Each structure stands twice: as structure tokens, then as C-alpha cells.
């Protein structure tokens, strides 16, 4: 072989291997355990992305607030320190998009089918669009589930909530929901909840069973009420500049991976929550309280005023569009 040919070959090899050695890195930070709907879907997205781009993309998933807590991860995304997050829909107001708190309105969704009418319909798309002016792109909604209420006293009627210090996510709607039944809401990062419950900083909290169980909250809560009074789920978001700067072919592949990871998230969400609840029950650490239809209706009635109180914050148009999609009646 001629020297020149050898040189060209060496160059090709060198550049080729550099490209292989420096894949595009997506840091995906989240606050929950790996064996939750979000944790599993994040890991599944990583698997698909790395396989389908043949290693040109590397997804580093950081679960359990390993990298950032709730508030910090939002800032990190905007600064570009991480590229992908899936915060709960209750955590978007600090970004300046209060409308997402429509998802926190108590009793607004009866089941996943009603929820999907919103997340997979025009209202869901409209809400994601609102993120763009914040330098963020909303790629998808991922399900978690319906919240239970836990405390160290049995919460059977709305009156039982009076004076209870309840940890909430940073949503004004959740604040209003708790106040509507006389509880004292306290905003706290997810990573701090277990300890706050254990030491009595707060008396109780609300979360889907998958979060309750994987954080061992049931070990420090004597009672769990199956109120299903509200929904908790996620929007998967990326730094807009980063996403738009990706090579087009890579972005297309990743969009496909996100679509499949979304189906996966929504497939495992209900099952995970059912299994977590069964595990809480089996542990015998907290007593499970079920509500009759009438008892549940009393909670709905008591919490209903938090809807009206938040019309100004969320916007009557968004609320009415969601009511129309789900058939919610005050
Ligand atoms: C919470 O803070 O309770 C949840 O948003 C955690 C999560 O991401 O599911």
C-alpha cells in the first residue's frame, strides 16, 4: 500500500473512532426509585436510545435525586447541566407555567381513560407548547397514578384532615386542596419526605402507592386511605437548545424511542401501583382504609372549592376544556 493511502486510512480510522468514543450524552435526572413507573420508563428509554443509535447516544439515568432535588433539576435543565427530566405535573409552576396545575385539581379524573383524553388530546399538546418560551420542549406525558392519603391517624372523613400537617409538592392547587379540608400543607422536596414523616415534621402525605412503597413511607405512616382523590403523572422535558441542536437523524430516532418509552410507562403504571399497594398491605406496617362511594363523595364535595379558587391561576379556558374532556361535574 502506498504511504498516502495508508495515511488516509489512518485518518479515517482516527476520526471514526473519535466519533465512536464521544457519543452524545443525555443526562436524565429524576427523583424516584428505579422500580417505579418513571424509573422503569427512563431506563427503557436509555436502552432503546443506545441500541437504536448504535451507541451514538449515551443516556445516563440518575434516579432517586442522586444528582438534583426537585427544584434544582428544573434549574439544571434550563442551564443545560442535564438534558432530560420527567418532573411531576405539579412542579411546573415555578417555571412560570401554572396551567399544568390543572392536573392537580382534586377528583378531576376518575380513571386513566379520562386522564388520557387530556394528556393525549389537544389540551395536553397546548400545555406542552407553553414550555417552549421557557427554553424547554415537552416531549411526552408519562403516567404514574392516583394518589392515596396517608397519616398516623385514620383518615376516613374530610374532617379527619383538620390540623394535619401534610407534605405536598410545590403546587398551589395542592395547597388549596389541603386547606379545603382544614389540613396544613407543607411544600417539601420528594427526597426529604421519608425523614419528615419519620421525625414528625409532617404528619402525613399524598402520593400514588408506587411512590409510597418504594420510598418506604408506609413504614412511617400508620394509615393509608385509598382516596384516589387526585392524579400524579409526568411530562418528559428536554432542553430546547440541546434537542434542536441534535443531528436530525438522531433526533428522529430518539423521538421514536420516546414514543415507545411512553407506551411502556403507561403500560406499567397501573400494574406497578397495584403491586405496590398489595406490598404495602402485605407488609402489615400500615392499615389500609377503603372508602365507600358515599364516603368518597364527601371528600370530593369538601375539596371541590379548590377548583373555583384556582380558576384565576390556571385559567377558566383550560379548566373548562378539561371538564369537557373528562365530564367532570362539581
Ligand atoms: C413527589 O414529589 O411526590 C412526586 O412528584 C415524585 C415523583 O416524581 O413521582
Q: What would you say this structure looks like, in words?
A:
The protein is α/β, with parallel strands linked by helices. The protein is 47% helix and 17% strand. Helix 2 runs antiparallel to helix 10. The protein has a single domain (11-326), classed as 3-Layer(aba) Sandwich (D-Maltodextrin-Binding Protein, domain 2). The protein starts with a helix and ends with a helix. The model has no long low-confidence stretch (mean pLDDT 95). It binds (2S)-2-hydroxybutanedioic acid. (2S)-2-hydroxybutanedioic acid binds at residues 31-32, 38, 88, 144, 169, 190, 207, 211, 232.
Structure described in brief:
Helix 2 (37-52) packs antiparallel against helix 10. It is globular, with a radius of gyration of 22 Å.
Key terms:
five-stranded mixed β-sheet, D-Maltodextrin-Binding Protein, domain 2, globular, binds (2S)-2-hydroxybutanedioic acid, 14 helices, 47% helix, alpha/beta, 330 residues
Q: Tell me, what's the shape?
A: globular
In what order do the strands lie side by side in the largest sheet?
7-6-8-5-9-11
User: SSE order in H/E notation?
Assistant: HEHEHEHHEEEHEHEHEEHHEHHHH
- The number of helical elements comes to 14
Helix proportion range: 40-55%
The CATH homologous superfamily: Bacterial extracellular solute-binding protein, family 7
Oligomer: single chain
**Overall pLDDT level:** 95
CATH class: Alpha Beta
Q: Which sheet architecture does the biggest sheet show?
A: 6 strands, mixed
